[in-house]
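Q: How would the structure tokens look for this protein?
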Amino acid sequence: MSTGKQLPLVHLSTLFLVSLLAGWLLSDYNAHWLTRIGTAIMTLHLAWVGFDAIALAVAWSVGIVWAGAIAYAWPRSVHGAGIEVWAGALAASWVLAITLALILAFAQRAMESINLRKVRAFWVVVIITWIGLGMGQIANSWLISG
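A: Here is the predicted structure in token form.
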């Protein structure tokens, strides 16, 4: 496989893994449906606009983390573990959200390297992201019930 074709494959694989983790975290925090819809809309916006949408995505990510901090949301995986673990989980959530935003923002450029048209590249990125988010939620539900 040529180096030019490896970049999108690595990029999309990383996007899927980060989306999977983000979906798991949203489920673990028992995020409100508005948060999930807002995140889905933000992924659409990032996938279409690309790099120019980073500021809005970062604002969304910071807003979600602050809302969690204000509401004192405890992910189910750290109940009773103490404030340090909760703060660490919140910080990890923020890092993951920023990572997802950056990977999505640069996905358009990665797709351009294999001459994929914008609309097709958009749908490839959106589908991979949403499958990752959905599988993360399913994995969290499976782990909790199992």
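Residues 3-145 form one domain.

The CA atoms of residues 35 and 64 lie 8 Å apart.

Upvote if useful.
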